[in-house]
Amino acid sequence: MPAAKPERHSVASHPAAETDVIVIGAGLAGLMAAVFAVEAGARVRLIAQGWGQQLVTPGWISVCDRAEDDVIAEVRGYAALHPEHPYGRAGDDAMVNGLERFRAATEAVGLPYELRRKDGHNMRLMTLLGGIQRVMLAPRGLAAGDLTDVRGPILLVGFAGWRDFFADLAAANLRRQGIDARALAIQLPDPDRYWDLWPGDLARHFDSALFREAMARQVAPHARDAERVGFPAVLGMDDHPRALDDLSGQIGRPVFEIPTLPESVPGVRLSNRLRRWLLRQGARVQIGHPVVRGVVEGRRCVGVEVQSLGHTTLFRADHVILATGGLYGGGIETDESGRVWEPLFGLPVLAPEVTSRAEWYYDDLLIERGHPIHRQAGLRVNTRLQPLDESGEPVLENVYAAGQMLAGFNPLTDGCAEGIALATAYKAVQTALGLDE
Ligand SMILES: Cc1cc2nc3c(=O)[nH]c(=O)nc-3n(C[C@H](O)[C@H](O)[C@H](O)COP(=O)(O)OP(=O)(O)OC[C@H]3O[C@@H](n4cnc5c(N)ncnc54)[C@H](O)[C@@H]3O)c2cc1C
Question: Which of 34, 315, 363, 376 would staple 46 via disulfide (CB 3.0–4.6 Å)?
């Protein structure tokens, strides 16, 4: 059911045809849907309550973390057997094109994402604690830490007293996995002032050549026998590529980045660059603006109402791409009664059939197969990514869904949520603009 109608709203002064596509959400799915739509020549307005989860994720792209061999081939095989999975719904072409076009977009905004060299296998990248995660794509700084063919030794650099990365602990955990790693703690210029900095604050210091020089001077003498040198992912915010190359040059060894606690600097860099790119292309980008409901006439959405100060504003568009995230993004809501719903259009949501909310979770918090609420809550869509009603018919002709809010997978445990965000964003744009016919 649509939410109760607000008492007042004003209509945005633009004529009805001002926008071809409204994208709701500024997570990976929403941002990339907006990019794909702009690239296809559409007039786009992106509206989001806030940034998405990329601000707290490591910054890499998991396409299928479990794949042992060629990732794309394994996803294809899986999707063929599981047509209800979002990869199955989006189809092979969308998966491949979504990833390729994402890579091209990151290249265009100056933050290229890289694949493992030579083959289509996953990289093996370090986590904050010295664990190893298999991922397919990562920004250049993280990708330079691929441990696949590592010979070592690896030098991990931390900042003495900084609360967000413990190089000793990470190195010890790598050694436990057979990787020759050691740690070095270097001094920030004024430790009392810096210990509590957020990763983003520290990253802005690394934009300064003088700051980098002071850091590199402390590392270089200890790096002579190191194969490469890992830093927490704070190597520059606005000038990251230069910071990375400059540090590698001064230290005399390849430098790589390791994900930190939030905020995720790789995620912030990408979000900022994509936003600026969209604005340069003439797209409208409103972040900090909650959509309160979709406005529906018959079986079409004619626009969305956005919260403004004291009233709502109606923005019209021919198509709407809903990329509002799942349970943790605001796209799907729940309450203490166990009800699960989609708040903007009242779209039907698949949810676990349980008698009590306690059954949403197993007793074991970290259970490998994941909890019922995460695997089973989401929007059921057709192969055009239109949300479906209980009888399997599209609810609305011109509304498409992408990203974590889709049913058919577990975004917390399946290791493919980011690949799904890209594949479904691509597919949603293709169907909205009639490019797949
Ligand atoms: C800490 C962490 C680590 C992760 N690690 C991995 C990993 O290693 N591999 C992996 O595959 N996945 C991982 N994930 C999951 C993955 O990152 C997400 O599934 C993916 O980023 C979701 O993207 P999305 O665009 O669908 O949704 P989100 O990023 O949740 O974006 C939803 C957007 O919708 C907006 N929105 C919601 N409601 C409204 C409204 N009413 N009006 C306007 N805007 C609205 C929000 O503000 C937000 O911008 C991780 C997630 C977290 C939190």
Answer: 34
